[in-house]
Design brief:
- Strands 1-2-3 form a 3-stranded antiparallel sheet.
- By secondary structure, the protein is α+β, with helices and mostly antiparallel strands.
- β1 and β2 form a beta hairpin.
- About 50% of the residues lie in helices and about 30% in strands.
- α1 packs across α3 and α1 crosses α4.
Length: about 100
């Protein structure tokens, strides 16, 4: 199993998201998030980590804002940035784990 770490931020709202993933055989076995920010940021991060578990790396990387808004409801443009910070952190964590696995 390979662990990857990623983070992203939305400086406009002060959102900071960190996500940690465990990849095994190209599948996200576990994902955890921490962060701070507006009310949408922790909700999006939490829902994203649940959504990504058990998915292949390529499927996890393809998750977009619309996948999260289906979970938490429609958002205005301002709050969509909070979701994008969570997605950015997830993608960074997956890439980090993948690079470690092939190194």
């Amino acid at each position: 199993m390979t662990r990857g770490f990623g983070s992203d931020a939305n400086p406009r709202d002060g959102d900071r998201v960190k996500i940690e993933v465990d990849l095994e055989g190209g599948v996200v076995m576990e994902a955890r998030s921490t962060g701070s920010g507006c009310e949408v940021s922790p909700k999006a991060s939490s829902d994203l980590t649940r959504l990504v578990r058990g998915r292949a790396r390529s499927e996890a990387l393809a998750i977009g804002a619309s996948d999260i808004t289906r979970q938490i409801g429609p958002l205005d443009e301002e709050h969509e940035r909070c979701v994008l910070a969570a997605i950015g952190a997830l993608r960074a964590a997956i890439v980090d784990a993948h690079v470690k696995a092939i190194a």
